[in-house]
Design brief:
This protein is mainly alpha-helical.
Length: about 900
């Protein structure tokens, strides 16, 4: 009979031959095609998932894969990225060094940025060798690792990267979420069921070293085909045969039978280890025992010899989670709670980070435990940048631990509100704040809570309520100077959405003067944000730029606002410089940076890039579950689809914009959607509806006019004139002229004002001036529209030769930008002018093949075929790696390929230009 804890020759693979063949085929496919794949091995605890995973890893190593292996831990699922860390830090050739990994977590505060950097490291390795990344027990993965695993397989689908996960069957659990997110990858799901009686008998022979008799077969029936339970029963049987004790089937009873033979010191040591988790440090368990490590060496040796623990040189590991759980459940519940609390104290005393103690705090802290509350606050601060949802959960728990009458409750509540708001859980933040305010806090705490709720209400577009609350707090008094300054800044923000922008500006400037004397950073950003919004809503673009530039100088997180402000004054060179700067530095608000990039590309008439920008922006907002610009993004995508002649796509985007508006209504988004509805109605020939929608936009509030008038007013005027609404058209033209007076140095503003006047008055001279002014600006679509209007006016005036010239310019500029529908309209006008014999300006791209690629897609395809990563291609093209990924997805779809290797082969086979 083999000795206890001896090796089991392939016992874990008994009955798994078919599954292993399927997984080997996936390994071979990834290596052969150079594209990604995903495998999920699932089943109940002890069914053999880990053993099968180990065999898959071994096969991949033999096949030449670079391998990263990790395991999630039930107790430590709170620590951000702890589950995935082992996958990239361990192995013969780690994907990242420990220092590189620490740098990721320490210096950058965005989940999206962090995941992209991980993707770049994996992509670089996969450029020279196929990669396998495995994570055992994914059901216990921490939230940031789960987030990364939902993004990385799809992001790296064109590289030879195989993801292998194991997990328990959980409907809508982490494993199912990851598989659903990777739907574009070849995926193998292996469901491990019970072993057959014959397989269990072979397993018993492997374990006992001899044939099994009827008594053993009867005993093994209790294992239900679970190989781990069977082995534990057989190991318990060997122990029982030695000790003559009876053995009852079942894991806990079986383990108890083995534990009874251990010395008391060894049993206590194992129980302390079980409290610490499946994987724990020897000295931590010794500390929890209240003993020195030296006095517990004998206990350690006995636990290892009994086959309960493995020693990997750095940590001790229970040989299976079920073993640890069986030891853990034998500890009385009250003792477990006390031990977890003591473990947390020891972890902090040993110099570890507060987040490392949190799993024990959550299991061991009782109401009134102030030390636990402080640790939860510190841990929440640490994880807020990358996992705001976790930070919010920790602060919600901290608030529960503070008695209702305790003075600490309001400070903890303030931090909870801030974390909940940062996590996008604005409703919870508001209800938490209102519950705390109902407790009649002291005046200073009242002011702090109202200030904390400011961002919550702003995010919810409840600006009227925001103003009422902050003014009440300011009137009540008792606020610390910095809190009073923040309240004044919030008041400025709230008033930026109101009609009286002059009064709002006065309030904001007073707030900025006051905060300058105090020097509070947060109050300064609030005041500058409010003043920037006021200037932007008033159409004072140069002033808005001044405010947003000052804001981004204080905090680079506001670079997207400064970029857009530069675009509003037609300073595209500065905008490009800042986009490059933000991309190189890894800007924290990646989705908002893509919003700015999309505005930049739209201004330059790069319609294909615009679509890619906003597709990517929406995807990133969906990934972090924070929707900011999705309505506006869909509005622009619908408008550009109409410009290209894609009526079906335009309608789909309109429907999506309405759905997103219903989910998150706001005055600005409502006005944008109403204007889009007007454009669609005009395109459908329903001029009456178009005019009514324009009137609705006008009623939304004057501040929205400036946002829409920058380069869309010409469309509104044309629709009004078509509907015979000359008074409305004149009113729109007056607004355009007022906007130009506010921005006399901006060619787009002055040119559009002249265009608007020319349309209303039928003035060829004004339209000629419009073209001249817009020719000094950077916006080809705006200029092309002005040329088209001029051409039509010249035709009406009987000046055919000049009309043909203007319409030809319009057609060519529209065609160059990809606005095929508008180019076709210009061509139609040319035919009406007697130029019908000239060749049409555009031809439709095919839907598949190399000819279907846009210019940007072709550039990226060639760069990737040359061996560039997404990052290096993005650096060359001055776009984000996320946008490169979006373009690359389109390239692979149009070319019907799945890997970079296939793309390289295809590009090499192309004829020379």
């Amino acid at each position: 009979m083999a000795g206890a804890g001896g090796p089991l020759s392939r016992s874990g693979l008994r009955g798994r031959e078919t599954e292993l063949v399927e997984l080997e085929a996936l390994i071979a496919s990834v290596a052969r095609t150079g594209s990604g794949g995903l495998a999920l091995i699932q089943g109940e605890p002890g069914i053999g998932k880990t053993t099968l995973l180990a065999e898959v890893v071994s096969k991949a190593v033999t096949a030449g894969f670079s391998v990263g292996v990790g395991k999630a831990d039930e107790l430590h699922h709170v620590v951000p990225l702890s589950s995935l860390a082992a996958c990239v830090l361990h192995g013969d050739q780690p994907l990242l060094t420990g220092d590189d990994f620490a740098e990721l977590a320490r210096n950058h505060d965005q989940r999206i940025w962090l995941v992209e950097r991980l993707a770049e490291a994996i992509e670089t390795r996969a450029g020279s060798v196929p990669v396998l990344i495995s994570l055992d027990d994914v059901q216990w993965a921490d939230s940031l690792s789960r987030f990364a695993l939902q993004q990385l397989p799809t992001r790296l689908r064109t590289s030879p990267v195989l993801w292998v996960l194991t997990g328990r069957r959980e409907p809508a659990g982490p494993a199912e979420e990851i598989v659903a997110a990777a739907a574009v990858l070849p995926t193998v799901t292996v469901s491990l069921g019970p072993l057959s009686g014959a397989d269990i008998a072979q397993l018993a022979g492997d374990t006992l070293g001899t044939a099994v008799d009827a008594r053993v077969r009867e005993l093994l029936d209790g294992a239900g085909g679970n190989p781990f339970l069977a082995v534990e029963m057989l190991t318990g049987l060997r122990t029982a045969e030695t000790s003559m004790d009876p053995v009852t089937p079942g894991l806990v009873v079986g383990v108890r039978g083995r534990l009874r033979s251990l010395r008391p010191d060894t049993l206590r040591f194992l129980q302390m280890g079980a409290v610490l988790g499946r994987r724990f440090a020897f000295h931590d368990a010794a500390a929890l025992c209240g003993r020195s490590a030296a006095t517990l060496i004998a206990a350690l040796e006995e636990a290892v010899c009994a086959g309960l623990l493995d020693d990997d040189g750095d940590h001790l590991v229970f040989r299976h989670d079920l073993l640890r759980q069986a030891v853990y459940v034998d500890i009385p519940p009250s003792a477990r709670k006390a031990l977890h609390r003591e473990a947390a104290r020891n972890i902090v005393a040993a110099g570890h980070q507060p987040i490392d103690a949190v799993p024990h705090i959550l299991r061991g802290a009782l109401p009134g435990d102030e030390e636990a509350v402080v640790l939860l606050q510190q841990a929440a601060d640490a994880v807020l940048p990358v996992t705001p949802g976790l930070a919010a959960d920790l602060m919600t728990r901290a608030l529960e631990l503070v008695p209702s009458a305790h003075p600490l409750r309001f400070a903890v509540g303030e931090q909870a509100i801030l974390c909940l708001t940062r996590a996008g859980r604005n409703g919870e933040a508001l209800s938490t704040g209102d519950r705390l305010l109902a407790g009649r806090p002291p005046l200073e705490a009242f002011s702090r809570l109202q200030a904390a709720l400011g961002s919550t209400l702003w995010n919810m577009d409840r600006t009227g309520e925001l103003r009422r609350r902050v003014e009440a707090a300011l009137a009540t008094g008792g606020a610390a100077p910095e809190i009073g300054a923040r309240l004044a800044g919030l008041r400025t923000l709230a008033m930026s959405r109101e009609h009286d922008l002059v009064a709002a500006r006065e309030v904001g400037e007073a707030a900025l003067r006051a905060v300058t004397a105090i020097g509070d950073r947060e109050a300064t950003t609030l005041a500058l944000s409010g003043l920037g919004e006021i200037a932007q809503n008033a159409g004072e673009n140069a002033v808005a730029l001044e405010r947003f530039a000052a804001l981004s100088a204080i905090d680079s997180v506001f670079l997207p606002e400064e970029i857009v402000a530069h675009l509003h004054v037609d300073d595209f060179a500065s905008a490009e410089r800042l986009i490059r700067q933000a991309t190189d530095a890894g800007a924290s608000r990646q989705a908002m940076l893509l919003w700015a990039q999309g505005q930049y590309d739209l201004g330059l008439g790069r319609l294909d890039d615009v679509d890619a920008d906003f597709v990517t922006m929406e995807r990133l907002e969906d990934e972090v579950r924070v929707s900011v610009q999705q309505v506006n993004g869909r509005v622009i995508r619908s408008r550009t689809a109409l410009l290209r002649g894609d009526r079906e796509g335009a309608r789909e985007h309109l429907v999506a914009a309405r759905e997103r508006l219903a989910a998150k209504p706001s005055p600005g988004s409502t006005a944008a959607v109403r204007f889009l509805e007007a454009v669609h109605a005009g395109a459908d020939g329903d001029v009456g509806l178009a005019v009514e929608k324009i009137r609705q936009v006008q009623r939304e509030g004057p501040f929205m006019r400036w946002r829409l008038l920058r380069d869309w007013v010409d469309s509104a005027i044309r629709m009004a004139l078509r509907g015979g609404e000359h008074e409305l058209a004149e009113h729109l033209a007056e607004q355009a002229r007022a906007h130009a007076e506010r921005n006399p140095a901006v060619p787009t503003a002055t040119g559009i004002a002249a265009q608007a006047t020319g349309l209303v008055k039928g003035s060829v001279a004004e339209l000629e001036r419009s073209v001249e002014l817009l020719s000094a600006g950077p916006r080809p679509l705006v200029r092309a529209a002005a040329y088209a209007d001029l051409g039509q006016a010249l035709l009406t005036a009987g000046r055919r030769r000049q009309a043909v010239s203007a319409l030809t310019n319009a057609r060519d500029e529209f065609a160059e930008t990809g606005a095929h529908a508008e180019a076709a309209h210009a061509q139609h006008a040319l035919r009406g002018a007697g130029e019908g014999g000239r060749q049409a300006a555009t031809t439709e791209r095919p839907v598949a093949g190399w000819g279907a690629l846009t210019l940007s897609e072709e550039k990226i395809a060639r760069l990737v075929a040359e061996g560039h990563t997404n990052r290096s291609a993005a650096d060359l093209l001055v776009v984000s790696p996320h946008t490169v990924n979006t373009h690359l997805t389109s390239v692979f779809r149009k070319l019907s390929i799945n890997s970079r290797v296939q793309l390289a082969n295809l590009v090499m086979a192309l004829p020379d230009d």
